[in-house]
Amino acid sequence: MERIPRKWILLPSRSQRGLQFWEYSCWNLCFWCSSGWVHDSCDRKFFCKSFRGQAKPLIKMSTGTGSTVTSAPTSSSTKATTTTSSKTTTTTSTTSGSTGKPVFFHYMIGTITDAHCKQDIQNAMALGADAFALNLNTDTASWATTTVTSLFNWAQTLGFKLFFSFDMTGFSSPTQFTSYLQSYVTSSAYYKYNGLPLVSTFNGGASSYTFGQDSVNDGWKVELEQVMANAGYPIYFVPAFQDVTITSSFFNTFPSLNG
Predict the structure, then answer these.
(1) 35 CB contacts (<8 Å, ≥6 apart)?
(2) How many CB atoms sit inside 10 A of residue 84's CB?
(3) Maximum distance among all alpha carbons in the chain?
(4) What is the pLDDT of residue 82?
(5) pLDDT at 101
(6) Where along the chain do its domains lie?
(7) d(Cα 61, Cα 143) in Å, to the nearest integer?
(8) How many Å apart are CA 33 and CA 43, to the nearest integer?
(9) Tell me, what's the pLDDT at 194?
């Protein structure tokens, strides 16, 4: 088993309603088989070989034929426009590379320097990413808010995009972060899908997340979506409810979600 300290780990995640999410972390864990450190035996392991300090980070990616290819991208890919389906409507989105869908890197907010934020964005752009999904579990701790500020500043300067994925292992209600979210959705660096700011979560689908409403769906609808809409900032809400079992009736249970 190979322990890989301080590497970017890129893991392909399931497509969510026209949006393609990728995991992007400085963690060492294998997210797919949960066996500890990233290791050679997991055939779903995708990770960057040279985290920092080299101009051409190497990345293993699927060729679409069941095999992998190692590439060293030197510049961001050409943007294209495609039409994709979201629920029962047709939307137009900006896409990256040949995937036909936007590609996001899941970014764990931590204590890093301003220069580190700049380098991470530059490296992600060189890999053709469209945005970072910022995993945030506090909007009060300075170590987190300082990093978020730096990331948005550099994203605006460099022409990159960001959006929040609120980690519900740290928050107990959307009321804790709606004001913080409102302060960023007007930024030119905030990622928008179908003209609306994209907002996601980590967890939040379990039965405890009703936020005083009659159901989990109503909790998110009233305490997040309606609050943002009433403030003048309607959102496109695509949470990652990894704490519930996904079935064919998922959107019957959660009809207020966009994906």
Answers:
(1) 1, 42
(2) 19
(3) 53
(4) 32
(5) 84
(6) 9-253
(7) 33
(8) 10
(9) 92
